[in-house]
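Hi, here's the filled form for the chain we discussed.

Project: internal
Contact: R.S.
Residues: 268
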Amino acid sequence: MNPKAIRQSDYHQGFALITGASAGLGEEFARQLAAMRKPLILVARREERLQSIAASLRKQHDIQVEIITADLSVPHAAEDIANICASKGWQVEWLVNNAGIAGPDLLKDRDWQAQQTFFQLMMLSVADLCHRFVPKMADRGFGRVINVASVAARIPRSGGCNYGPAKAYLVAMSEELHLTVASSGVNVSALCPGFTHTDFHETAGLMEMKNKMAKWLWYDAEVVVKDALDGVQRGKAVVVSGRLYRWLDPIFQSIWTRRFFRIKARPE
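And the returned structure, exactly as it came back:
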């Protein structure tokens, strides 16, 4: 990471709030922000896992680490998180919206409640947390927001018709938020990683797919988080992580080549 970015963050001693902090990218964000001496608020459903991570980071970095057990697929979760922070006097200056799942197939999974739960977690909870914390950041003149999206948001493809579109919403929202509040000292970035080594694919039952894929398509979580932290400090509204994906993204977005990269379903 850029040393100048680390020094700048040290001038601000508010908390970094990280959702989905019990594993994967969320845990790696906690580790790297802890190394930057940022006090942390870790949010996830698994209290025991959060307690373990918090204890380790306190011991290693001698920083304040708080936890909030919450399920962001529940509509009132973001409000509860904001209320807890306010009651404890925890000032949030960094917000990392990382919680997410692979989700149901929009057409094949017929349980509409499961679809709504997915929308709540992947989009509404992120908008809700931004709604509650970003205005206060702007009033104070400093803030950093990272919304974890995906390269899947950058190009249409056939499939479940949920994950990519949900991540595309985060990209669009992040870009508009950044345009709106950057002049107030608040940088907002949508992080778009490609295939990343975390427990995401195991949890989603996608290990067979992962094992069949070429290893050079995959990046470590450490690399992805470093790219995200550097990008948001430099004021990049969209951060595509990984050299391969940074090279491919302009091709995906070009009006001249975009149509050739749309991945259509094969006839059954």
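Let me know if anything looks off before we file it.
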